[in-house]
Amino acid sequence: MDFMSFLPYLIVMAGVTYLVRAVPFLLINKKIENRFINSFLYYIPYAVLSAMTFPAILYATGSMISAAAGLVVAVFIAFRGKGLLTVAVGACAAVLVAELLLIPLCASL
After folding, report:
1. pTM, whole model, 2 decimals?
2. Residues 68-91, buried b or exposed e (16+ Cβ, 10 A)?
């Protein structure tokens, strides 16, 4: 794709991104006091991050089984209240163990 055909896409994307961020500041000039709207706005970043991250978790490894193992271990460690680094290391270790177990198992079949 050459630059001249890419430029309209870039301008539209920049405009939409700017409008989504700027319009709320222009329309709302006082503190939001509605509990429902505050709660909704509070959880939007978490919902968007999970919607973007969850599919990547399932397709980031060599097989769906090792990805599921990493996901299960990560959720378990996170529910135990551990930090992000501990969760990430635990999930990576689970994927590594699952991959090491899957390779000999699949080769013997």
Report:
1. 0.62
2. bbbbebbeebeeeeeeeeebeebb
